Automatic annotation (TrEMBL):
Protein encoded by which gene: nth
UniProt cofactor note: Binds 1 [4Fe-4S] cluster.
Reaction(s) this enzyme catalyzes, per UniProt: 2'-deoxyribonucleotide-(2'-deoxyribose 5'-phosphate)-2'-deoxyribonucleotide-DNA = a 3'-end 2'-deoxyribonucleotide-(2,3-dehydro-2,3-deoxyribose 5'-phosphate)-DNA + a 5'-end 5'-phospho-2'-deoxyribonucleoside-DNA + H(+)
Protein known as: Endonuclease III
Cited HAMAP family: Nth
Length: 228
């Protein structure tokens, strides 16, 4: 893909979603880390409903360790995989207290050492909490990048991230991450993408196929049933 086309895609999604931002509610790096950990295989909307009360009850790493695991599990039970996530939260809090004086580290490699924190979570935290340019590849970013040809269909999540980092100017990484998420969440959805009204249809392989299929269905005459 040439850089001119990449620029066209970036400018178009910027026009569509100029105010794209992290939709996980948080007030500090620690809360953001917990929220992103909870968001795995779960919608931001559900996470925000849970963390509204959770962040009132638990302010610091010590607070999460002061209750039995089963109590924390109950506090987040509306979240998918809540038992495993509760265990990771307590282990993460223990490591923060043991190694980092209870503060979330700013370095990417230190973040990924925390229980329950993978590369995507670390990218979200460094970019949104500490202002370090990063592109976190979630399901929306992966899907949209492949549909628009910014990445290949068979690329792994890491390969998608590397291609985006190469094609997108570094100073635009974080904002592009948010805009790709908004584009995928509110326009180019997994099951029902709004292809008919998409300004990037010419760049989308799947969109072209979907529109051709739609047009083909319109031209097929409906079978007329005969009464006996």
């Amino acid at each position: 893909m040439n850089q001119e086309l990449v620029r066209h895609i970036l400018d178009t999604i910027a026009e569509m979603f100029p105010d794209a931002h992290c939709e996980l509610h948080h007030s500090n790096p620690f809360e953001l880390t917990i929220a992103v950990l909870l968001s795995a295989q779960c919608t931001d909307e559900t996470v925000n409903k849970v963390t509204k009360d959770l962040f009132q009850k638990y302010k610091r790493p010590e607070d999460y360790l002061a209750v039995p695991l089963v109590e924390l599990e109950q506090d987040i039970r509306r979240i998918g995989l809540f038992r495993n996530k509760a265990k990771n939260i307590q282990a993460l809090c223990a490591m923060l207290l043991d190694k980092y004086d209870g503060e979330v580290p700013k370095a990417h490699e230190q973040l990924t050492e925390l229980p329950g924190v993978g590369r995507k979570t670390a990218n979200v935290v460094v970019s949104n909490a500490f202002g370090v340019p990063a592109i976190a590849v979630d399901t929306h970013v992966e899907r949209v990048s492949k549909r628009l040809g910014l990445a290949s269909e068979k690329d792994s999540v890491l390969e998608v991230e590397k291609k985006l980092m190469k094609r997108v100017p570094r100073e635009e990484w974080t904002q592009t991450h948010h805009r790709l998420i908004f584009f995928g969440r509110y326009h180019c959805k997994a099951q029902n993408p709004n292809c008919a009204a998409c300004p990037l249809l010419d760049s989308c392989r799947e969109g072209k196929k979907r529109m051709k299929t739609t047009e083909r269905r319109k031209t097929i005459p409906k079978a007329v049933s005969s009464k006996a």
